[in-house]
Write a structure and sequence with these properties.
about 130 residues; alpha+beta; about 40% helix; T2SS_protein-GspI; N_methyl_site; transmembrane helix
Length: about 130
């Protein structure tokens, strides 16, 4: 029998299997990165929605002519978003003993928006109001 002197070209089975393992590992890493990016994007969208709702609720409170200390709670029309508003008189640090003779006093307004299991966003501002 005569042997052909031309070398055979092509891949061995082992080379093909190694290439498939490398390809599968690379695709797995890419899928994991894609899933993390999607999760981060969803959380950012929820946080942006909560910020928009908190600003809306804060604008509603600031538009009132009277501001009374206390706490209010409620639900937004969107599923899973709740809010809590706290209005309290504010004293500047170091001026607690100062007696104000004016009826105009500063109020601290805290608005918190809750969603999901443990997600929360809080906005705080000060506003001058008339003492009750």
């Amino acid at each position: 029998m005569a042997r052909s002197e031309t070398p055979q070209s092509g891949f061995t089975l082992l080379e093909v299997l190694v290439a498939f393992v490398i390809l599968a590992g690379t695709l797995g890493v890419m899928m994991r990165i894609n899933a993390q990016a999607l999760d981060t994007s969803m959380r950012a969208a929820e946080r942006q929605q909560a910020l928009m709702l908190a600003e809306s609720q804060l604008d509603r409170v600031l538009a009132r002519s009277d501001l009374l200390p206390g706490t209010e709670r409620g639900d937004f029309e969107l599923d899973g978003f709740r809010w809590q508003l706290e209005v309290s008189p504010f004293t500047f640090p170091g001026q607690e003993e100062l007696v104000m003779e004016s009826r105009i006093i500063p109020y601290r307004i805290d608005i918190s928006v809750y969603w999901g299991a443990a997600s929360e966003l809080q906005l705080t501002t000060l506003r001058l109001g008339v003492a009750p």
